[in-house]
Amino acid sequence: MAAPDLAPASGSTSELARTIDHTFLKPEGRRADVERTVAEAAELGVYSVCVSPSELPLTLPEGSDLKVTAVCGFPSGKHASSVKAAEAALAVAQGADEIDMVIDFGAAIDGRIAAVEADIRAVRAAVPAPTVLKVIIESAALDDDTVTAVCGAAEAAGADFVKTSTGFHPAGGATVHAVEVMRRAVGDRVAIKASGGIRNREDAEAMLRAGASRLGLSSSRTVLEGGTGAAGY
């Protein structure tokens, strides 16, 4: 498993930008929207661009060091593990550097943590290092004990990150409290990505101070410029 990506809690705009996965996951999105997202990501100097796997492969600007992230089992997590594994492997074959997979959080709510771990292991086996695997746990839908248990399962299965949210669940997105619970669960052994509903710089920096080192944002420009973005991912 890769070492955790531990970013500074605050700093310059360029440092903040390097914690961001600039995200476009709207189901109604068109190819032109994805191309604009990629161009904006390169312009802003963010770490990666995060898209749906059907949008791969991406054409990155020449000379760009932009990473490519693809989601897997998104957004419900209600996919067979073999399907998630195949989706992740195809995304990597088409240029993804990182995979953000969604667990079956219904199984987590039921207490079937072994099943959650097996699901993560299947994807990890399909996309071994150096591919970075982030595990979306939908923290707003889980109580603290379940968040802790699921984070333990992700660590045991070889995940590089645990991630708060899809940004699509009605229970909500990232919270400082959830990031703190996740950090206590994984210590400095696994990195944390906060995503879902982070719409201003104050909230973004609060997530980093709580223990996140990566942020999933769709309103990256607005956040970096100190404004407030629209509701959503």
Number of domains: 1
CATH architecture: Alpha-Beta Barrel
Level-1 CATH class name: Alpha Beta
- What is the general shape? globular
The SSE string, one letter per element, is HEHEEHEHHEHEHEHEH
Q: What is the radius of gyration computed over CA atoms, rounded to a whole number of angstroms?
A: 16 Å
What is the name of the CATH topology? TIM Barrel
Helix segment tally: 9
- The overall average pLDDT, rounded, is 94
Strand order of the largest sheet: 1-2-3-4-5-6-7-8
Number of strands: 8
What would CATH call the homologous superfamily? Aldolase class I
Helix and strand composition category: alpha/beta
Fraction of residues in helices?
25-40%
End-to-end gap: 27 Å
Classify the oligomer. Answer: single chain
Q: Could you describe the largest sheet, including whether it forms a barrel?
A: 8 strands, parallel, barrel
Low-confidence parts: none
Percent of residues in beta strands? 15-25%
Provide structural commentary.
The chain has 233 residues and is an alpha/beta fold. The chain has a single domain, classed as Alpha-Beta Barrel (TIM Barrel). 39% of the residues lie in helices and 16% in strands. It contains 9 helices and 8 strands. Helix 7 packs parallel to helix 8 (201-210). The protein starts with 12 loop residues before the first helix and ends in a 9-residue tail after the last helix. The model has no long low-confidence stretch (mean pLDDT 94).
